[in-house]
Amino acid sequence: MKNFESLFAAWMVVWAVFFLYEVSVAKRISRLREDLERLKQQLRES
Amino acid sequence: MKARIAFTFFIIALVIFAGYAALFIAPDEKTMHVIQRIFYFHVPSAISAFIAFFIVFVANSAYLVTRKPQWDWLGVAGAEVGVACCTIVLITGPIWARPVWGIWWTWDARLTSTFILWLLYIAYLLLRGLLEDPQRRATLSAIFGVFAFLDVPLVYLSNRLWRTQHPQPVILGGENSGLAPGMGKVLVICWVAVVCVMVVVLMDRYRLERLRREYEELRFEVESRTVAAESIKGAR
Fold it and tell me: Is A17 in contact with B15 (Cβ distance < 8 A)?
């Protein structure tokens, strides 16, 4: 199976890019949710 | 929530099946052999990038007409997802090219116009980061996004209009083009898998933008209340 490493590398790139991007979006959403909760708490207290 | 979990499992299964189909079901290509199988992810990623940039074009045009923020959110979500797909194309292409052409990269019309497309949407995202006023940011980036889309037909037509190192089109490429039936089916399976992943990521990215807007509005309210409270204290 000549060039199988290259095929495997390309296949990994495809899903790694999507996976890392999805993880970064999920992290940003959870951080934003925490900030939103903090602001809502501040509003309730004021 | 249950539907989301079920859809996630469906996509994971589809991605695994697409990988299996690309490796074991698709027929062997006579000249390139195993390395040609990159085709089943390289081409769907390119088509998905085109779809994402078309979404940006539609969303930006709609924003300029209606001024509804939802279109701006869709525009930025599409641009980020499109850049992700285009990045995949620009990485998997050279991995395929090296064993077949003997070079990683060449500045032919197809490769150069794709690289410019990637740079244009990176610039679109950078532009948004530089502008603080939300309305100004949305308007300027929408104008930029509409013009950036002009490169998409250029990328599509580049290997039809000019002689390129990149192969001539195998889909909708005229009389001598076309795929073996087995190859076509596997390509469709892989394309559906990539598009499903793209849609999930796009929806999440849109949700992020909606939350960001909610956060900005709430922060403005908190700041207004703080200023009002301080001015009352000062008056006393």
Answer: no
Global ipTM: 0.91
Q: Which CATH class is domain B18-235?
A: mainly alpha
Taking CB atoms and an 8 Å limit, are B222 and A46 in contact across chains? yes
Cβ of B149 under 8 Å from any chain A Cβ?
Answer: no
Amino acid at B197: V
For residue B63, CA distances in Å to B126, B139, B142 come to 19, 8, 7
Q: Which residues of B touch A43 (CB under 8 A)?
A: 218, 221-222, 225
- Average pLDDT of the residues of chain A: 91
Instruction: Give B218: exposed, middle or buried? Use CB within 10 Å, 0-12, 13-18, 19+.
Output: middle
B178/A contact by beta carbon, under 8 A: no
d(CA B86, CA B115): 8
* B136 reaches A (C-beta below 8 A): no
Residue B40 to residue B193: CA distance in whole angstroms: 11
All structural domains of chain B with their residue ranges: 18-235
d(CA B200, nearest CA chain A) in Å = 9
* B190 in Cβ contact with B42 (< 8 Å): no
Could you report the per-residue pLDDT of B49-83, keeping only the tens digit for each? Answer: 999 999 999 999 999 999 999 999 999 999 999 99
**Token pair 């890019």 is at which residue?**
A17
pLDDT digits (tens, 9 = 90+) for B115-169: 999 999 999 999 999 998 889 999 999 999 999 999 999 999 998 898 888 888 7
This prediction's pTM: 0.92
